[in-house]
């Protein structure tokens, strides 16, 4: 026996590793290192010269290197089988794929010699299988299997890149390659982002007037809208003790901290004054901010102005009722494990449960509180719970306003964040809110946050007919557009049942097959842009994807035939016969052409007396 074709290259390079002799090659080193390791472990001493094809191996132990490549080539069969099974959820499609691969003479040939191709394809298909398995755990992110398959995908990708890669025209300089990279980054990343951002710039410029969507956005955002009560107004910039303020919750469509004379009903916590969140402007939204241990008249000019700072202990007095914002360990009206928030005390005097620590998100002690821009939390001093709005609507006794609670959970969420919107203090100079308007990047970010929260927060209306995602592919349920009774003009949204059924059959091809088509495309079309010499074996990575696609396509086609002839009692046999025909044809073709893989002697196929004469179907076949 002797080395064949490129065995003279890669066998020699394996010898170099065994002998620790430096060499240069156009491909990364992993494949040659593994060949050398296989030879070393199997007893090969690295002395065979690998000068030219046909030189006899004689006593040199080359079997280990060939066996190693053959083993990796044989692993392609279970890899492709499992990949197709995972993508298509069809056992016959996976079996068809494996059968085609088992009896493909090309893969048998390329896997039994000392070449980089079986090593490359092993890592390539390992990466594909790992990625497919990783995607199957997308609903169980960060679990052990999710991490395992994600890591294995990276390992196999590194392995594939470490064996062989092609960079189009290898004569390109690094500068030219850099230009190509920058061009793609510019056109495929930067340009779409610029256009997308410009779209929102136009959006914000055109929609500059107050409307029904104001309440979904922050106070700062609203201040830029013509017609909004915050537009072009002047208020003091920093909050001082004695200021009259309103607090707006930062959750989507968050209301203003509100109270009124009505009490909580019997059986709902302590029978004290209700505190809620209210979505509209109202005098009952006004609160006076005071020091926790000092109840003085801050309008008296004899007292110096003292600004409220991050970390201060305060109490809030409701301006209309003179009750203090209060919490205690009674359960909230609607939300379990949250504490009730009430109005308590007389003329600003209450108890220690009225004290709150004010904190500005991302600030240090001593920093002032800024109107509109500062995001604050109010932490109850006695229980360490945090003032928040749950978004739940209270019953009629609460005037269907929004529940306000004190949550013991310390996680920072929009529900527990507030900003100061209105600010009245005759002793402080006013500034135009124009200087506090958010910048374009800030309103762009806020609009996306609101959109994301809006999508995740969509709930069905009462008695509204809804559907589930699994309904759609099988046409399980339609949607009434209009009309209910027989006298009504009725429009009903329903997919064409015939087309839907065909699409149901084809979705396996599009879902699983679409990724395989992409894999085939990525491993095939780049060769059209290469200036280097190319050989048939370069197609084999793409051919793996083609074989997997064949298995899925044939399975879908046969299922369609079964459906089309479903009225016939022989319909099921069409599927069985179809699979059997393909398997038998693959096996018979292998029987005819197996000499190409395992070697043959005698006349060439162009000779009529050759045993292969009838198998030369194309003139370009040279065997």
Automatic annotation (TrEMBL):
Belongs to the glycosyltransferase 39 family. It is an enzyme of class 2 (transferase). InterPro entries: ArnT-like_N, MIR_dom_sf, MIR_motif, PMT-like, PMT_4TMC. Coiled coil: none annotated. The gene is POMT2. One of its GO terms (molecular function) is dolichyl-phosphate-mannose-protein mannosyltransferase activity. Pathway: Protein modification; protein glycosylation. Residues 236-292, 305-361, 366-423 form the MIR domain. The keyword Membrane applies. It catalyses: a di-trans,poly-cis-dolichyl beta-D-mannosyl phosphate + L-seryl-[protein] = 3-O-(alpha-D-mannosyl)-L-seryl-[protein] + a di-trans,poly-cis-dolichyl phosphate + H(+); a di-trans,poly-cis-dolichyl beta-D-mannosyl phosphate + L-threonyl-[protein] = 3-O-(alpha-D-mannosyl)-L-threonyl-[protein] + a di-trans,poly-cis-dolichyl phosphate + H(+). The chain crosses the membrane at residues 63-84, 90-108, 115-134, 146-169, 181-202, 517-536, 542-562, 574-593. It is found in: Endoplasmic reticulum membrane. One of its GO terms (cellular component) is endoplasmic reticulum membrane. This is Protein O-mannosyl-transferase 2. It is a multi-pass membrane protein. Keywords: Endoplasmic reticulum, Glycosyltransferase, Membrane, Repeat, Transferase, Transmembrane, Transmembrane helix. It comes from the Eukaryota. Its EC number is 2.4.1.109.
């Amino acid at each position: 026996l002797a080395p064949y074709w490129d065995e003279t290259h890669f066998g020699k390079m394996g010898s170099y590793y065994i002998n620790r002799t430096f060499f240069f090659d156009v491909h990364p080193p992993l494949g040659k290192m593994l060949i050398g390791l296989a030879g070393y472990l199997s007893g090969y001493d690295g002395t065979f010269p690998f000068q030219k094809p046909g030189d006899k191996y004689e006593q040199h132990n080359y079997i280990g290197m060939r066996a190693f490549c053959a083993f990796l080539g044989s692993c392609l069969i279970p890899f492709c089988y499992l990949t197709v099974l995972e993508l298509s959820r069809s056992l016959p499609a996976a079996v068809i794929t494996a059968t085609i691969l088992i009896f493909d003479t090309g893969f048998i040939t390329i896997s039994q010699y000392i070449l980089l191709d079986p090593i490359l394809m092993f890592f390539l298909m390992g990466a594909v299988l790992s990625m497919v398995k990783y995607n199957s755990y997308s609903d169980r992110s960060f679990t052990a299997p999710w991490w395992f398959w994600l890591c294995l995908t990276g390992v196999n990708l590194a392995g594939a890149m470490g064996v062989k890669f092609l960079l189009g025209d290898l004569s390109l300089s690094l500068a030219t390659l850099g230009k190509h990279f920058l061009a793609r980054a510019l056109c495929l990343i930067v340009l779409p982002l610029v256009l997308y951002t410009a779209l929102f710039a136009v959006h914000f410029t055109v929609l500059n007037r107050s409307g029904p969507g104001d309440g979904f956005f922050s106070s700062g955002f609203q201040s830029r809208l013509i017609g909004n009560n915050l537009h072009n107004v002047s208020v003091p910039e920093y909050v001082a003790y004695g200021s009259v303020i309103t607090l707006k919750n930062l959750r989507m469509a968050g209301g203003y901290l509100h109270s009124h004379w009505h009490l909580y009903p019997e059986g709902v916590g302590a029978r004290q004054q209700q505190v809620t969140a209210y979505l509209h402007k109202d005098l009952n939204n006004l609160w006076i901010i005071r020091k926790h241990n000092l109840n003085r008249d801050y309008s008296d000019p004899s007292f110096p102005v003292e600004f409220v700072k991050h970390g201060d202990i305060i109490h809030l007095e409701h301006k209309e009722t003179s009750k203090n914002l209060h919490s205690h360990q009674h359960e909230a009206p609607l939300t379990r494990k949250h504490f009730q928030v009430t109005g308590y005390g007389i003329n600003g005097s209450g108890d220690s449960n009225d004290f709150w620590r004010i904190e500005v998100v991302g600030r240090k002690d001593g920093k002032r509180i800024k109107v509109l821009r500062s995001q604050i939390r109010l932490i109850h001093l006695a229980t360490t719970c945090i003032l928040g709005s749950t978004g739940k609507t209270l019953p009629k006794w609460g005037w269907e306003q929004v529940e306000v609670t004190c949550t013991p959970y310390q996680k920072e969420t929009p529900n527990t964040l507030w900003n100061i919107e209105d600010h009245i203090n005759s002793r402080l100079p006013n500034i135009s809110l124009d200087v506090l308007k958010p910048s374009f990047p800030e309103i762009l970010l806020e609009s996306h946050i609101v959109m994301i929260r809006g999508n995740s927060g969509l709930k069905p209306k009462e008695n509204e007919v809804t559907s589930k995602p699994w309904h759609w592919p099988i046409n399980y349920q339609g949607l009434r557009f209009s009309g209910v009774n027989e006298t009504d003009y009725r429009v009903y949204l329903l997919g064409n049942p015939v087309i839907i059924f065909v699409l149901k059959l084809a979705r396996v091809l599009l879902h699983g097959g679409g990724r395989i088509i992409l894999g085939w495309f990525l491993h095939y079309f780049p060769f059209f842009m290469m200036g280097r010499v190319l050989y048939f074996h370069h197609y084999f990575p793409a051919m793996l994807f083609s074989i997997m696609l064949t298995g899925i396509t044939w399975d879908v086609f046969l299922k369609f035939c079964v459906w089309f002839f479903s009225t016939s009692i022989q319909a099921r046999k069409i599927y069985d016969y179809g699979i059997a025909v393909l398997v038998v044809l693959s096996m018979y073709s292998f029987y005819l052409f197996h000499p190409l893989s395992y070697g043959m002697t005698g006349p060439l196929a162009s000779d009529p007396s050759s045993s292969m004469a009838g198998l030369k179907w194309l003139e370009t076949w040279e065997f």
